[in-house]
Prior knowledge:
- This protein is α/β, with parallel strands linked by helices.
- The protein is built from 9 helices and 6 strands; from the N terminus they run αββααααβαβαβααβ.
- The protein has helices spanning 4-11, 36-44, 49-68, 76-83, 87-101, 106-117, 132-141, 153-156, 164-173, and strands at 16-19, 26-28, 102-104, 121-126, 149-152, 179-181.
- Strands 5-4-1-6 form a 4-stranded parallel sheet, with helices on both faces. Strands 2-3 form a two-stranded antiparallel ribbon.
- The longest helix is centred in the first third of the chain and has 20 residues, at 49-68.
- It starts with a helix and ends with a strand.
- The model has no long low-confidence stretch (mean pLDDT 89).
Amino acid sequence: xxxxxxxxxxxxxxxxxxxxxxxxxxxxxxxxxxxxxxxxxxxxxxxxxxxxxxxxxxxxxxxxxxxxxxxxxxxxxxxxxxxxxxxxxxxxxxxxxxxxxxxxxxxxxxxxxxxxxxxxxxxxxxxxxxxxxxxxxxxxxxxxxxxxxxxxxxxxxxxxxxxxxxxxxxxxxxxxxxxxxx
Length: 182
């Protein structure tokens, strides 16, 4: 791995430094991201909720693609129809479970802090169904400094994977900026 100092030196050349969130800035104390849903199932006392939730997400993404040509969804409204679990309560429990297992990647928290001290513009850009308010709270709870902006695919209905979310970033900050995404 490149040293923190060396990577910060390379990143300083850019005007806008973008970070992905999960498995980059934030790590989970779980083997797989979907294992968090076991905690949601236990907390909600709803048998087989993990499978129902994963199936609902898959169906929601397929439906969204057929209707709009993208896979960017928010989820708990669809789960309410399948389980009768209140959508706000379900989302609250899932976020609380995420918070209980998420922690800062020690390598990247140091990099972000150094870059912020140097006045660099640091943004978040991620394909995710959790909304930016939740993401920012997870990062704050993990000890990260405040980010300059947050671009989450479900809010913009544009994917990072196909580059559309980055186009929104470029439109906001300008074509002349030098960008990098980690």
